[in-house]
Amino acid sequence: MAESNPRDGYFSMGQNTLKVPVQLFADNRKKICQSLKNTPTAPAGSVILLQGGGDQGVCEGDSSDVGPIFRQESYFHWCFGVLEPDFYGAIDVATGRSILYQPRLSEDYAIIMGHIPTPEEVRERYRVDEVRYVDEMPDHLRSVAGATVPTLLLLEGPNTDSGKMTRPAAFDGMSEYATDRKILHHQMAECRVTKTPLELDVLRYASKITSLAHMHVMRTIKPGMQEYQAEATFLHHVYFHGGARHVCYNCIAASGRSAAVLHYGHAGAPNDQTVRDGDMLLFDFGAEYCCYCSDVTCSYPANGKFTDKQKIVYNAVLRANRAVLAACKPGVVWSDMHLLANRIVLEDLTAAGVLTGSVDEMMAVNLGGRMFQPHGLGHFMGCDVHDVGGYLEGNPERSSLPGLRSLRTARVLAAGQVLTIEPGCYFVDFLIDRALADPELSRFIVVDRINEYRGTGGVRIEDDVIITETGTELMSIVPRTVEEIEGWMAGDDSFMAHWK
User: Fold this and answer.
1) What CA dihedral angle connects 364, 370, 371 and 375, to 10 degrees?
2) How far apart are alpha carbons 215 and 221 in whole angstroms?
3) Nearest Cα to 282, choosing from 218, 346, 340?
4) What pTM does this model have?
5) If DSSP states are collapsed to H, E and C, what string results for the chain?
6) pLDDT of 217-230, one tens digit each?
7) For FRET with 339, which of 149, 240, 264, 290 sits at 20 to 30 Å CA-CA?
8) 288-326, pLDDT tens digit by residue?
9) How far is residue 298 from each of residues 35, 211, 286, 324, measured CA to CA in Å?
10) Is the separation of the CB atoms in 260 and 457 below 8 Å?
11) Mean of pLDDT over the chain
12) pLDDT tens digits for 317-350?
């Protein structure tokens, strides 16, 4: 029989990969229980009931029995750390007692999929208080809250990024129980916004293996290669060296004009262009480890040497990135950081003669959001790359302005939050043409200069940071200045001192 994972209280992919204590998930369960105890509307006898993710086909509507490698639903993982599909989990809010319900699999399952763990083996693996089978759950739930008839708290609420709803747990016989679908989602999403120390350790590790893989891609990419070869290099590196079987999103391996497509790399544009000498590259990759994410973007010239024109845009975005990094701390409003980044890029484009006029007036008409950075500055990150909690009730609402409306949160920063800082500057023909046709914007544009940048794509510099009590901790450490990038791509290993 193969060794189980988690084992001896830890999840690990072996070798030199991070050992993640399953205590992380016990801490999360304690956190949500305490939050609910502090919620006056939570009924007596409350029992959290979550339904884990299930196996699926290749895509929605597919009838095949073959699908992608299973990855656990994020709320369920946050509470239990269970790797397998088709589980349920319950937590008695009053006592914190935790129960997993595993599917009862036929003996034939073992022929195809290997050893079927017993309830005791599952209990030891995930360090919960009890494990039962799913078919026992309808009757067993009656006893979870002791003598009190339980009220099942179900997870139902919107993801403010995707617009999708979470799936509340369901089973035959649920109609015999009192249920509540209103309380849990807000409380659990809010708990996920600030990370525990153990969660931060996993996020640091995910960012580290992503950063090192980015550096390997940076060192090995050459004109004449295909974009997907950079993607393949990254995927191999994070899995072979870091144990990351999953990435958090489709890799964006954009060269030249493609770098102006914000989520390039999708099925209709599958990183299939040839990298050409002189192209700027925009590589947005993020490894996932133990269902915790990273999200790092590096932009640099394919041939390893910046032109003067490329330096103008790159240094503007880098200055914006570093200004936000320096300004972030508890109490700062995230939307103000977005505007700070926009202002700095506009200042530098004006100084370079690409724009003309008053930067204050440019900001007043939102030139940055309408022309150069049509996305938000960054987002929360955790068990989802675009993590939950961005627009929970009681926090600032989403803006209606271009750029600002794409912000995945407008919250006030607090210690323990994890975010990306990802200013950008892109040259999108559609947005340039629309700005030139709009007198409110065109008065700032130096037409001959802006036309020099058509077709060059864009620059995004994305880092992963923790908000600390006094500022920020930078988790993603890669060559960033022009000098660091050119030196690293030329074979100078001195930057590795940052990882010693």
Assistant:
1) 120
2) 10
3) 218
4) 0.97
5) CCCCCCECCEECCCCCCCCEECHHHHHHHHHHHHHHHCCCCCCCCEEEEEECCCCCCCCCCCCCCCCCCCCCCHHHHHHHCCCCCCCEEEEECCCCCEEEEECCCCHHHHHHHCCCCCHHHHHHHHCCCEEEEHHHHHHHHHHCCCCCCCEEEECCCECCCCCCECCCCCCCCHHHCEEECCCHHHHHHHHHHECCHHHHHHHHHHHHHHHHHHHHHHHHCCCCCEHHHHHHHHHHHHHHCCCCCEECCCCEEEEHHHHHCCCCCCCCCCCCCECCCCCEEEEEECEEECCECCCEEEEEECCCCCCHHHHHHHHHHHHHHHHHHHHCCCCCEHHHHHHHHHHHHHHHHHHCCCECCCHHHHHHCCHHHHHHCCCCCCCECCCCCCCCCCCCCCCCCCCCCCCHHHCCCCCECCCCEEEEECCEEECCHHHHHHHHCCHHHHCCECHHHHHHCCCCCEEECEEEEEECCCCEEECCCCCCCHHHHHHHHCCCHHHHHHHC
6) 999 999 999 999 99
7) 264
8) 999 999 999 999 999 999 999 999 999 999 999 999 999
9) 38, 9, 11, 17
10) yes
11) 96
12) 999 999 999 999 999 999 999 999 999 999 999 9
Q: How far is CA 130 from the centre of its chain?
A: 32
Looking at the predicted structure, is the pLDDT value of residue 232 above 90? yes
pLDDT higher than threshold 80 for residue 1: no
Task: Give the tens place of pLDDT for each residue, 454-482.
Answer: 999 999 999 999 999 999 999 999 999 99
Separation of alpha carbons 479 and 472, rounded Å: 19
Give the pLDDT confidence of 257-282 residue by residue, as tens digits: 999 999 999 999 999 999 999 999 99
Token couple for 28: 């999360």
Q: Is the pLDDT of residue 147 over 90?
A: no
- Mean pLDDT, range 127-151, rounded to an integer: 94
Share of the chain above pLDDT 70, in %: 100
At position 120, the amino acid (one-letter code) is E
* Planar angle of CA 25, 383, 293, nearest 5 degrees: 120
Q: Are 289 and 204 in contact (CB under 8 A)?
A: no
Phi, psi (rounded to 5 degrees) for 153: -90, 120
Strand partners for 472? 467
Is residue 404 a contact partner of residue 373, using CB atoms and an 8 Å limit? no
Q: 């090192």: which residue's tokens? A: 212
